[in-house]
Amino acid sequence: MLYALTNTPRDYAWGSTTLLAALEGRDRSAGPEAEVWFGDHPGDPADLADGRTLDAVTGGTLPYLLKLLAAETPLSIQVHPTRAEAEAGWAQESALAVDDPARNYRDANHKPELIVALSDRFEALCGLRPLQGTRALLDLIRPTPGVVRLREALDGGVDDAASLRAALRWALAEASAAEIADVIDAVAAAADAHDDLAFVAGIAAHYPGDAGVVVALLMNHVVLSRGEAVFLRAGLLHAYVAGLGVEIMAASDNVLRGGLTPKRIDVPELLAIVDTVPGVVPVLGAEDAEAAVREYPVPVPDFALRRVRVGAEPRALEVRAPSMVLATAGTVRVTGSGSTLDAPVGTVVFADADEPTLTLTGDGEAFVAEPGRG
User: Fold this and answer.
1) How far is the CA of 40 from the CAs of 43, 50, 59, 133, 141, in angstroms?
2) Rounded to an integer, what distance in angstroms lies between the CA atom of residue 262 and that of residue 243?
3) Can you give the pLDDT of all 374 residues of the chain as single tens digits?
4) Total number of domains constituting the chain
5) Nearest-angstrom CA–CA distance, 67 and 165
6) 297: domain CATH number?
7) Is residue 135 part of a domain?
8) Does residue 73 sit in the same domain as residue 105?
9) Claim: this prediction has a pTM higher than 0.90
10) Given 257, 294, 306, 307, the catalytic residue
11) 257 part of the active site
């Protein structure tokens, strides 16, 4: 059976008044629109046309959560646990209420995720930059006392991963407010010397004095063009900074924060689960930008995602149920075994376990989400 899904955008402060509105062809919103959730997660299950929510159909068993995400300003730097870490954290915090602000773990699941750019430019921080590149950046910055302390932390480990862990600990737990401000001021003064320094200085303008700005200085600046994506595995530091995207993840709300936020940061727990091995995060989808069906391969069984260009000829797709079709441009119509539903841009057609094949018609673009291969 097919179901039409909608949801109310969540009004997080970092959201945009224009990005989702422009996608859906409406006037700018009165307040920020940050995320639209299409899933059965208890935090915000999607709405059905009959007034129920999706969990009434699925029983809350959907393994993935699909979202539209619109960032006007940077999100918090964050990292997600592995399943084993989530299970252990959930058990350890069992005495706390699920909504207790002291909680790190809202459920016992991991949260790998994939973000695909819908805007022409989508900027993010993804993973820790190889140390040679960070040292080269610091060479462009005036060696103020705070910068010297940061360099000492980066130079003191037995290997690159240990050095970066020490630098994170220094920035988030050991540095004084004056030292953090000193580093931020030095970055701003050198912003013209390198694009990455200008990028971090721009983040600092939104979060003055935040230790997360120093963390951002250690991370890879990733720029996606429309249709390109990055996969973010457990343990990988990341933060979306600006743009509109389609996001899919395992059905979890487990987040450990590492700066750029007024919310609680549990530094010991963050350092316990973060992977500080540096490296470049691959961009997916660049090689098949013109493909009618664009795959985004991910190494997890929770979800799979592909972009489909819908044209005059019907396009039949075999899917692993339960699946979703999210319309992102033009007109999209979805036909299942016994019914057809139109999907206005910004909405989803959900197909239950009785729909192994979906046929898409119209003239537009859609993203098809489904469980991954085990």
Assistant:
1) 8, 16, 8, 42, 48
2) 22
3) 999 999 999 999 999 999 999 999 999 999 999 999 999 999 899 999 999 999 999 999 999 999 999 999 999 999 999 999 999 999 999 999 988 888 999 899 999 999 999 999 999 999 999 999 999 999 999 999 999 999 999 998 899 999 999 999 999 999 999 999 999 999 999 999 999 999 999 999 999 999 999 999 999 999 999 999 999 999 999 999 999 999 999 999 899 999 999 999 999 999 999 999 999 999 998 777 678 899 999 999 999 999 999 987 899 999 999 999 999 999 999 999 989 999 999 999 999 999 999 999 999 999 999 999 86
4) 3
5) 31
6) 2.60.120.10
7) yes
8) yes
9) yes
10) 257
11) yes
Known binding-site residues equal: 78, 80, 113, 238
Whole-number Å distance between alpha carbons of 309 and 227: 11
Q: Is residue 295 part of a domain?
A: yes
Place of tokens 């979906």: 358
In single-letter form, the type of residue at position 152 comes to: E
- 177 in a domain, yes or no? yes
Residue 1 lies in a domain: no
The letter for the amino acid at 215 is: V
Do 90 and 30 fall within a single domain? Answer: yes
Among 217, 250, 278, residue at a domain's last position: 217
- Name the token pair of 112: 């790998």
**Amino acid, res. 292:** A
Binding site for Zn(2+), by residue number, is 78, 80, 113, 238
Q: What DSSP letter does each residue of 58-91 carry, written as one string?
A: HTT--SEEEEEEEESSPPPPEE---HHHHHHHHH
Shared-domain flag, residues 106 and 240: yes
Instruction: Look at residues 286, 312, 336 and tell me which one is the last residue of a structural domain.
Output: 286
Q: Are residues 36 and 118 in the same domain?
A: yes
Phi first, then psi: what are they for 247, rounded to 5°? -120, 140
Is the same domain home to 117 and 229? Answer: yes
Structural domain boundaries, residue 64: 9-125+223-286
DSSP characters over 287-337: GGTT-SEEE---S-SS-EEEEEEE-SS-EEEE--SSEEEEEEEEEEEEE-S
* Whether residue 256 is found in the same domain as residue 139: no
- On whether both 165 and 295 belong to a single domain, the answer is no
User: Residue 96 carries which side chain, given as an amino acid letter?
Assistant: L
**φ/ψ (deg, to 5) at 360:** -105, 135
Claim to verify: residue 190 and residue 51 sit in the same structural domain? no
